[in-house]
């Protein structure tokens, strides 16, 4: 009986590890991420190996009233550092940059590091230097395609 139990446990653990995703599974595809602060909104990300586009799909009233160009599609270039981290810069060749996008580029871009995977979602932390201080934002993006 114990041998059967151990065998079944081994089989099921093997199958479950096959279903787990890795950082590599998040390098390309379509994702949704939600921003909670400083303003709440939902973004659709379409990513290839070297670039991504971002489009706000559910702006909050606060974002709309702020005057931020939330209807804009942002074009971003990606430089992968390793399987789980990349540096992103806004691509000025594909359109004009907002003040925030230009500020991020002028600061050397943002470093994004994947920290954990839960099903089809990946948790990340993004960092950049602002006025000489390293600032962090954490989030989660879920793969939908």
Task: Offer a few descriptive terms.
signal, 8-stranded antiparallel beta barrel, Ig-like domain-containing protein, alpha+beta, single chain, Lipocalin, 22% helix, globular, 8 strands, 145 residues, disordered N terminus
Radius of gyration over C-alpha positions, nearest whole angstrom:
19 Å
Please list the strands of the largest sheet in the order they lie side by side: 1-2-3-4-5-6-7-8
Poorly predicted segments: 1-18
Shape call? globular
Report the mean per-residue pLDDT as an integer.
Answer: 84
Number of helices: 3
- Strand percentage lies at over 45%
Quick summary:
Keywords: Signal. This protein has 145 residues and is of the alpha+beta class.
Would you kindly provide a written description of the structure presented here, covering whatever features stand out?
There is one protein chain. By secondary structure, the protein is of the alpha+beta class. The protein has one domain: Lipocalin, CATH 2.40.128. Helices cover 22% and strands 48% of the residues. It has 3 helices and 8 strands; from the N terminus they run αβββαββαβββ. The chain has an 8-stranded antiparallel β-barrel with strand order 1-2-3-4-5-6-7-8. 10% of the residues are buried.
């Amino acid at each position: 009986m114990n041998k059967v139990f151990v065998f079944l446990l081994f089989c099921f653990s093997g199958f479950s590890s096959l279903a787990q995703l890795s950082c590599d599974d998040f390098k390309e595809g379509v994702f949704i991420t939600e921003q909670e602060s400083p303003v709440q909104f939902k973004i659709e990300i379409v990513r290839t190996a070297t670039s991504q586009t971002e489009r706000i799909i559910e702006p909050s009233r606060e974002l709309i009233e702020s005057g931020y160009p939330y209807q804009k599609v942002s074009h971003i270039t990606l430089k992968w550092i390793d399987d789980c981290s990349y540096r992103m810069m806004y691509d000025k060749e594909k359109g004009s940059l907002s003040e925030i996008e230009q500020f991020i580029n002028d600061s050397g871009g943002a470093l994004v590091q994947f920290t954990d995977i839960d099903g089809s979602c990946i948790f990340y932390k993004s960092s950049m230097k602002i006025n000489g201080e390293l600032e962090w934002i954490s989030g989660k993006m879920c793969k939908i395609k």
